[in-house]
Batch of 2 targets.
Target 1
Amino acid sequence: MATITTTITINSTDLLTDELSLSTTATLTTAGTSTGLTGTAGLARKKTGNTSEYTLFAAASYTDDKAHKAYLKNTSTTAAQYFIVEVAGAVVGRLYAGDWALIPWAADTTSTNCDIDITPSAADMTLEYMLFTDE
Amino acid sequence: MATTTAAVTLTSDLLSDEMSVNATTTCMKAGTTADGLDGMEYGYLDLVTGDEYDLIGATPTASKASKLYLKNHSTDETYFVAITQGTQAIGKLYGGDWMFIPADFHDAAGEIAVTANGGTNKICYALFHEGITKDASA
């Protein structure tokens, strides 16, 4: 069985009066089981040529209502540059320069196509991304 | 300024060669390298099945660089927390899963809500932000 592990570590020495340190690891499994995810859309880089909206992952291309996980990273080093991240047309948030995200994704197609879309704030920005799929 | 770093490591034997991805970000306020996110809201609670709950009992300032961490601490692999934004399903966090997402909260429809499934789910969350307005007392 394939094993995909994800670890997050959040640290701060001065956000609170006491030091903050949080670390956790998850093994990515298929919905409702202990079986590891076995599919991936691969690690990729996308350079945007303009400030139009791009569909990164189309829900219709993946199994609906599952335990997919999407990893995104804005590689920009210009602080003001961001990607707007949308799921099903709803703005989730902005990924500023250097920011990354790990998003659970149901690939829901029941009501609205739950596509993951990105809109860069400037032309010629680069996004790194990867999808772990539950197929 | 407050300095909060968030690092991720993804490793896998899914491919014929080992894969490892590492990324670290310092959580900054929107559009600057001079000032870090300086607010935090944290919770660790039992989430009973049945109803949908707004995760954050406050309204963060819109169109900023807030970050939301959420982990499902359930040990039963069939339990999950459904994540929705407005009326739209985003994804499901099964027992042991975590997420770290940008959280815009650009308007009322931007509220992140959670619904427990399978049984009572124990969740932990942290919102890193640059300003919130507490919800008025009912």
Target 2
Amino acid sequence: MIMAEPAERTDQEPATDVPAVEMDLVRRAQRGDLKAYDELVQRYQERIYATVYHMTSNHEDANDLAQDSFIKAYQALKSFKGGSSFYTWLYRIAVNKTINFLKQRKNRTHMSLNDLDFNTENNPDLVALISENTPRRDAGLKELQEKLNAALLKLSEPHRLVVVLHDVQGQSHEEIAEIMDCNIGTVRSRLFYARQQLQSLLTDYLKPT
Amino acid sequence: MNENEQDFGTLQQFLKLKRHEMPPPGYFNNFSDEVIARIREGGKSGELSTEAPWLLKFLQLFEFKPAFAGAFASALFLLLVFGFVFADRPESSPQPLLQASAAQSNSFAAVNPVALAQPAENTGIIATTNPATSLQPVASLFDSQNPFAQQVSFTTTGN
């Protein structure tokens, strides 16, 4: 199982019946039906957790923040009028909570990384990247994971968020613009700048030999 | 630009590594249960929201608008500073006090001369933090002008 599926899934998700079912669950949850809310939590728990985790690079923080986001969303559910999808609204809560948290802990970054799943070594893209393109051929996957997370943590929160949502989680520019409450041009320029930054930070691992 | 895109392609491949970072096995099995349990717990113990919703909204305002929290903290700080400044300021300077007591002694003919002649320890002491005024003797606690009292004169008839 891969955490936070890429663009293929998220772009296909807003299918015809999904919003109707989701709105029904939301309305029931607004009336205090915790079973309905439990279903909503189960729908989005992986994606919310993944976003927060990739932003913090810390499993414990991600666990707390993801839970807090769902609790806050439930408390504020009555104020949800359906102007956007529940998913986008929930994402905004999680993202704001995470950014506030990151601002508070600014100078005390502690990584607590999740393990790589057993499919990692079978991923042909990664195998090719490590064995052919990376000058540090001796670098193990674990080391690469740490370097990548450390580089991400050096980006500002908005730039990190754009990279996480687009390049890691595969969300579209439009979705990201809605979540971040900015225009698409801003998303594109942030993404470009963030990638440039990452590229310079990871230059030892990216330059082809 | 083309070169950049190509380079970003390598970076994007590298970023795919993050999709393989997994939480401990079974982590999501209990996630929603924990969230619902915390919501139920909050419903029982979180009486604040029902008893004092205004307070909850006020506190939430700090979370949603950090600038408001900063402004509120600044206002509190200023209030504290003003409090200190005004607390340190003497209630009245020593010179006018002496002048006032002298004026009083001149204007009232009915001042008890015995009271004026009494040593300081027998008279009232002004309680103030200013060392210049704290030990100034006062003729009496009761001979100052009362703004609410009116002087009356009685004329006796007969006798």
